[in-house]
Amino acid sequence: MGYGFRVRQALEAFCALRRWNLELLRNLEPPDWDKVAYHPERGPETIRFIVQMLAEHDLRHLKELEYIASYVEAG
After folding, report:
1. What's the sign of the alpha-carbon dihedral 44, 47, 52, 58?
2. Are 53 and 59 in contact, with CB atoms under 8 Å apart?
3. Which DSSP state fits 37?
């Protein structure tokens, strides 16, 4: 079993979890976005803030992947 299988399996799991999270977010009512959760290090955070942080986090990783891909393509 090479890396290809594990990478594919990880990508499939990521995509399934992403779809589930997006469906959960689509079903939130407007007042839900301002509900507060408590992070042990950062303290109180709204759902809106958490989702915004996660989106920014994803965009940073996407830029990293694009950078890596540019080097792979360049050889």
Report:
1. positive
2. no
3. E
